[in-house]
């Protein structure tokens, strides 16, 4: 089957999926998603089967197919739920950002993806499955970078959009570096390295916020020197 036909088949399957309307149905869907997360984390996307997921959830295979007609539809729904949680966490941090200094913000950002992936171990297999791209996985890095940029702009409102995107990309790479070293479980000093990455991020943010504050003050001073138009 061509990729185009496969995509069309998945779209048809999503359209056929039943949406739960009652609390009991929503609880069943939540249990199926939890079981899918455990199965994908343990076996990976390709090796996981719908039969094993249904058994893990204590549900019939018919019940699983009723809500999720294909494994792709199920994985995509799970990934969307994960992304909603992660983006919600970053949006909450955006609300708190104005009250945090650079060190406090770095302390929240540097280990954020470590904590998230630890809580949701199926996230990485779903996003990084070779040769397969779930709809929800498309643009994940860009979506997260945009949320990080929004956090930075909340702390430095005068920052230009282009600069915020560049700064967010640097912060994102430091967060990914923390994930990478955290994954080296045999390395005895990984906690110390993560602490160093957090300090690096704090210094970077401090320099960034100081520059943004100076730019804001310079712009205000320039505006105040403009002669008032005669009426």
Automatic annotation (TrEMBL):
Q: Which InterPro entries match?
A: DNA-bd_HTH_TetR-type_CS (IPR023772), Homeodomain-like_sf (IPR009057), HTH-type_TetR-like_transc_reg (IPR050109), HTH_TetR (IPR001647), TetR_C_15 (IPR041669)
**What organism does the record attribute this protein to?**
Trinickia dinghuensis
Recorded superkingdom: Bacteria
Biased segments, Basic and acidic residues type: 8-22
Mind listing the GO molecular function terms for this protein? DNA-binding transcription factor activity; transcription cis-regulatory region binding
Q: Which Gene3D superfamilies match?
A: Tetracycline Repressor, domain 2
**Annotation: DNA-binding region:** 49-68
What keyword terms does UniProt attach to this protein? DNA-binding, Repressor, Transcription, Transcription regulation
Q: What is this protein called?
A: TetR/AcrR family transcriptional regulator
What are the residue boundaries of the HTH tetR-type domain, all occurrences included? 26-86
Positions of the UniProt region annotated as Disordered = 1-24
């Amino acid at each position: 089957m061509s990729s185009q036909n496969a995509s069309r088949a998945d779209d048809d399957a999503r359209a056929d999926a039943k949406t739960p309307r009652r609390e009991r149905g929503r609880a069943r869907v939540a249990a199926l998603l939890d079981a899918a997360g455990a199965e994908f984390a343990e076996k990976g996307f390709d090796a996981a089967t719908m039969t094993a997921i249904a058994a893990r959830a204590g549900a019939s295979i018919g019940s699983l197919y009723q809500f999720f007609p294909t494994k792709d539809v199920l994985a995509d729904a799970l990934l969307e739920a994960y992304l909603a949680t992660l983006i919600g966490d970053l949006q909450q941090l955006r609300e708190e950002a104005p009250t945090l200094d650079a060190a406090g913000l770095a302390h929240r950002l540097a280990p954020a993806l470590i904590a998230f992936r630890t809580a949701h171990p199926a996230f990485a297999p779903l996003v990084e499955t070779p040769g397969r791209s779930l709809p929800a996985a498309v643009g994940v890095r860009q979506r997260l970078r945009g949320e990080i940029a929004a956090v930075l702009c909340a702390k430095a409102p005068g920052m230009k959009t282009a600069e915020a995107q560049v700064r967010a990309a640097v912060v994102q790479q430091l967060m990914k570096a923390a994930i990478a070293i955290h994954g080296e479980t045999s390395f005895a000093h990984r906690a110390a390295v993560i602490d160093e990455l957090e300090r690096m991020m704090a210094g970077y943010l401090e320099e960034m916020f100081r520059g943004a504050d100076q730019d804001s003050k310079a712009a205000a001073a320039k505006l105040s020197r403009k002669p008032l138009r005669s009426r």
